[in-house]
Design brief:
0% of the residues are buried. The N and C termini lie far apart (56 Å). By secondary structure, this protein is α+β, with helices and mostly antiparallel strands. It has helices spanning 10-27, 56-65; strands at residues 31-38, 41-49. The protein has one domain (10-65). It has a two-stranded antiparallel ribbon.
Length: 67
């Protein structure tokens, strides 16, 4: 279980969580972010990233355009 500091104000906790979410969003091109909340406090952030494969160049070659 995550240890939650009682010395932080709710506004400070929210700011910390928002900063972490912003960092993850800036680095994520495709994927999802899941927040785990306990007693109204974000205690965990899970990130799943996706890799997309672009087959459009292969389609052009297969349609006879050649290399």
């Amino acid at each position: 279980m995550a240890k939650i500091s009682n010395n932080l104000t709710p506004d400070h906790r929210l700011q910390i969580a928002m900063d972490e979410i912003r960092k993850i969003l800036e680095k994520t091109r495709h994927g999802s972010i899941t927040l785990i909340v306990q007693d109204g406090i974000v205690v965990q952030i899970d990130k799943t990233s996706k890799s997309r494969i672009d087959y459009s160049a292969l389609d052009r070659i297969c349609d006879g355009e050649g290399i």
